[in-house]
Every structure is written in structure tokens, then in C-alpha cells.
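In this supplementary section we document a worked example of the pipeline. Step one takes a protein sequence of length 516 as its only input; no multiple sequence alignment statistics are reported here. Step two produces a three-dimensional model, which step three serialises into C-alpha cells for compact storage. The input and output of this example are shown verbatim.
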Amino acid sequence: MHVRVLAWVFVLISMGACAVLPENSNQKPSTMFADTQGTTLGRAFLEQRESHPERSGFLLLKNGLDALVARAALARAAERSLDAQYYLLHDDLTGRLFLRELLMAADRGVRVRLLLDDMGLQGREADKATLATHPNIEVRIFNPFARNVSRLPQFFTRFGRVTRRMHNKTFTADGQVTVLGGRNIGDEYFEANAALEFGDLDVLAIGDVARDVSLSFDAYWNHPLAYPASSLLDGSHEDQSIETLRSRYGLLISDARNAPYFRALENSPLAAKLVEGELPLLWGTADVVVDYPEKLAVPRDRNDLHLTKALAPYFRELSQELTIFSPYFVPGKEGVEFFTTLVKRGVRVRILTNSLASTDVLAVHAGYARHRRALLRAGVEIYEMNRQQTSGSGVSSSQVLGRSKASLHAKSFVIDRRWVFIGSLNLDPRSVVENSEVGVVIDTPEIAESMAQWFDQDIQRVAFKVTLEGDGHEEELRWSGYDGEVWQEFDVEPHSSFWQRSTVNLLRLLPVDSQL
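The serialised model returned by step three reads:
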């Protein structure tokens, strides 16, 4: 048996050794348009911006419908440019709706730049390849896998390179308005998946934040790791033209027009308010924090390239309360020590993360569970998502579809009820060290207070509080909270199966925190 395993490993390594990427010499640099103040979006909020000099305006996008409507409305209002940067763009209903909006904008003469990480593109390349043939659309693929061999062996031969991904998520129109946060593009992020809904959080921002996100996009777009799609894709999709893509997208809209999800989209007032400059924005100062794209190509100890360096001053000023929303939470020993130190200083630390039943990655839950008892002993308050709820980080989701599973996906934290971080950063080694991320730290107390108050009032309606009971010799984990309308207490992880618990117990034995 061992001989067979070694033989297969040898075959995979041999195959991966043949992986070859094309020369990236036909990458033409481009940058944001600086003169877009006269566009519809530039004019829409002019009066509000003049009333709040040197500040940016913010609107939390708490539910999936609003998050999709905001992107569609920005695409339709754009006159000069659309820049979209995503880790995942699924080939499903909302993925195709998103691409349709980009195509419609390009048909009007808008320059569209679509930058995608390559991790989720396998089997989903056709529409992106076709869009790249449009004269106003350019598609680039970041940190790509070689196309001359399968992906699996490349995880062995290019480990440390293809395992480090661009996890950024931003969408910017005319350099004037941007949306960033935790959402990828796919049905589960926008309340269009009947089986799964991610409780997620984005923020729409205008002002200097949009400019800074555009500068960040340019850095990734023009980096040597960003390959034009035309240099990677082999032409196997050439039988689909732009015209056939327009026709397919038109049929998609026609077929789904009467579905509840589409009616909810059409009835959303957000689109009109956005274009008319009537959104109820909250104003404040903000810092866009972003990993340098070089992070993915240099040794991991180059933390001068990490966005965590920009976050450090906020944590140094932390004095009263830290509230964390993180779907993938793997603190490691250093993290446990950090949170322990905070509690000893008198800081209240509260964490909402996924439960075993709500997580979509068992290995990550194993990494988190390895440190759960130590955090509880230190006095950290831990809450785990109830998979039967449809609400995550203060997100009160529309009840358009019943969900069989809800999962937290929002990535945010609130510091001293003053500063709020919203972005793509999970609090785990993969986000901090391996992947690239982007986010914004907002100094708008109204936003911070609203998120902290939601935690105060509603957390046990959507999550189970985890506690340790017994003395130091006989400690047992307990979970308590509302399960539906009934208060429940559990001595095993709620709504989890024996198979899930057994798998996590095995995974906890593996020293793989750095890859989680």
C-alpha cells in the first residue's frame, strides 16, 4: 500500500514539474481615470460631499439583495469605468447576472476591467473568455495555474506559490463609488441559493475611499502575477461569441423574471436612491488597508507588505471592547496570547465564528477548536453560528427563500465602539500570511455602535454561547442559546453529526494551522 501511495505521489510530482506559464509580456498597463467628477455618479453625491469635506460616506449592505442591487446599479450608472476584483465568481444565476451587467456597461462604451483569482476558475472559464474578446472588456487572471497540466500536481510542485491566493473583493464605478467587504460573486452570497446562505457584510463607500480602492486595484491589475486571460485560455471557447453570450443572458432574465428573487430585486429602492444621491450615508474618516500584491511572491516573513501592519495602531489603542466577526477563526498560540493579554488589561473580547454545523470547511473548524478551551479559560466570550438562522453579522436577511443551512461569512471587527473594520480578512493564518486581502477601517461611531448594539441584543438569537463548566480537571464544553424560539443547552456541538465531530477530532491532530 505504501509503495502505491509513493508511486502516485511520484507521478503527481512528475506531472507538476512540467507546468509552464506563458510569458506575461503582452500585459498592457492601465490605471484609474482621474477626471470622473463630472459623471453621473460624481455629481450624484456632490452636495453631500461638499457638506462633509475630507470625509467619505458609507452605507452598510447587510443583506444579499441590497448587495447585488448596489453592484448592478453602479454598473448601470457607470459612464467611464468599472473595476471588479474577486476571489470567486461562480457560473450560477447571480454570477451570470453580474457578468451581464458588465457586458451591458461595456456595450455602452464603459471600460471594464475584471481581475479574478484563478482558484475558482476551473470549469468556469467559458463566459470570462468570451467577455475578454469585447473591445471594452479586459479580463486578467491573478497568480494562475499552468494550463498545460492538471491542477492537482501543481499543488505539490508549486506549493507555496499556487497555494497563496488573491482573496480581495472590490467593485468600483467611475472611481467614485466602491463596494468592498466579504462577498464573492455567487448565489450563496446574495440570498439566491435555497440550500445555503452566507451571512455576509459589504460596505458601499464614496469619496476618498473609492479613490484608494482604485489605486489598490491598479497595483494588482498591473502586477506581473496578473495575466491577460487571452494568454492563458486555449481558444476552446471560441465557438461562443459575444452575440451568443448576450442572447444567453437575455434568456436567463426572461426565464427568471417572475421568480420571487427577481421580484425582490426589481422592487428594491436602493438603485434609484443611489443614482439620485439620496442614500442615507453616514460620514466619517477611513483608512483603506490592503496587502501589497508582492506579498504572494516573496517570503512570508516580509510583514512590511501585510495589511496587518496598518491595523496594528488601532489594536494598540484598544482599551475597552473588541467585537469580532470571523467565519474562519484560527488564532494560533500567538493569537491566544494576544487575546489573553487584552482580557487581563480589562478589555472585553467577544467573538462570533462558525459552528461545526454551519462551517463549510471542517479543517478550519478543527484549527479553531484546538484553541477554543484556552480562549475560554482566558475570559474570551465565544459565540458560534446557529446553522438554522439566516443572520450573521447584524445581517437581517430577507425571507425570500427558506434555507436549510446558514453560515457566517462576514469579516469585520469593532474596536471600542468607535472603529469598524470591514473587508475580506479572516482572522486566520491563511488570510494574515498566505493570501492577499483588502478592507477599510471606518471611524464613524454610529456604525460601530450599531454593530456593537446588535451583538448586545441579538447574538443569542442567531448563535450559541460556548462556555466551560467544571473545575480545571473536569472541564466540559457547553453551548446555550435560542434554537428557534426555545432556549436550549447542549453538551455536544449543536446540530452536528457524529461523522462531523469525528472528522474534526482527527483533523485536530494535524499541525496545519499555517494553511488554514
